[in-house]
Amino acid sequence: MIAVDATAGEIAAAVSTGRIAARTVIDQTLDRIEQHDGKVNAFTDVVAARARATADAIDQRRARGEKLGPLAGVPFAVKNLIDVAGLPTRAGSKINRERPPSARDGALVRRLEAAGGILVGALNMGEYAYDFTGENIHDGPSRNPHALDHMSGGSSGGSGAAVAAGFVPLALGSDTNGSIRVPSALCGVFGLKPTYGRLSRAGSFPFVHSLDHLGPLARNVADLARAYDAMQGPDADDPATTTRAPEPALPGIENGLRGVRIAIAKDYFARQGEPAVFAAVEKVAQALDVSTIVEIPEAARARAAAYIITAAEGAALHIDRLRTRGADFDPAVRDRLIAGAAIPNAWIIQAQRFRRWFGEQVLQLFETVDVVLAPATPARAPKIGQSEFTLDGKTMAVRPNLGIFTQPFSFIGVPVVCAPVWLDQGLPLGVQIVVAPWREDLALRVARVLERDGIAHIKPAVL
């Protein structure tokens, strides 16, 4: 019997040595999904026959004495904007599910399966990824496994919920403005938004091409690094990826932090959220003996500019659907996209100019520090259906404002690991570990130290 909280590393080791069959792992995984996902609503599609066939093939390879990959027998699932052969790529929408089934898996699905992983299904998400809540009017909300009446976060809400619920040790999500990090924070799991261009997006439905990232969510840091390493490498099918060779992170996560310069982003990040949110950052800083404070210059303006670019590019992508199928959109998504179509070109040009300037300022900051710590969300997971919260005496809408701390970093494509922190018996909080481009290895090292010392960790969901 494979434990619900078994890690990807433990599963792969057990399958590779024959202590458990991959088919047994998958049968148990599918049973747990069938028994409990009715409460969580993480999955929109389960590919049981495919998963069992893949598991059987892995067991046959082991029986022949063949060497298996680093993810041998490990179940994983993907946000339903990533292509899965035989399924229409929904992207959380009503319109897309009418498309023909995908003929081929997305690039990252192929890479994870090449490493021995076994795809078990596609996951719920906010419509067209324009969402921070995890609420989908077509498929229902994905629910937070730690409190089923609370949000999972979005737009990769099914991904965060599936990992937190123990359905799979690994899931894939996308992050345009925070859609990996927000669910990671609200559901209490680890998430990685890599450097823009590090992981291929080929075979995924876009939202904002200049901001879209794909990345993993996992129950521990080693698994996050293991999945990340398996997916690295350039891809001619995604022009945003570079020719940069893979740089494995897993071997180095135990290297510690001697000589690493870490600072806290305060100012904007300390003013906008519930007191507990920045208290989580301070807990991490205290554990790492960090007292240096830095300011992310014009972070509020970066967030505003990110919204302009998001709305304008998203509207351009969907303009024909808005004209012909407007009634089939989630009204909240439709109205934001229509507003994006009305943004003056001068605003968009100015937002792009500011983006270049802001990126230069942050790169200069990384000449004096190596790591910046910041909160991931302004609040713990709100309740499903909650439309407003009060922060710093101001009433704010939930849907657009759960990403106020993630957007400034997505905006310039720097890598971030979100680490789960628990202050009390309440719901989890997330801390962003932000590093310079191409230094995912360093962010993962910091997360591993926090995990090793018991500061960042998951808790079992009670389903």
Describe this structure in words.
A hairpin with a 2-residue loop joins strand 4 and strand 5 (147-151). This protein starts with 7 loop residues before the first helix and ends in an 11-residue tail after the last helix. It has an eleven-stranded mixed β-sheet with strand order 1-3-2-6-8-7-14-15-11-9-10, sandwiched between helices. Helix 2 (22-40) packs antiparallel against helix 3 and helix 10 crosses helix 12. The chain has helices at 8-16, 22-40, 48-63, 107-114, 157-164, 181-187, 221-231, 268-271, 275-287, 299-325, 331-341, 345-365, 398-401, 407-410, 440-452, and strands at residues 43-46, 75-79, 118-123, 143-144, 147-151, 170-175, 190-193, 213-218, 262-265, 293-294, 371-375, 388-391, 394-397, 416-421, 429-435. The protein is globular, with a radius of gyration of 20 Å. The longest helix is centred in the last third of the chain and has 27 residues, at 299-325. The protein is built from 15 helices and 15 strands. It has a single domain (8-304, 342-452), classed as Amidase signature (AS) domain (Amidase signature (AS) enzymes), CATH 3.90.1300. Helices cover 38% and strands 15% of the residues. It is an alpha/beta fold.
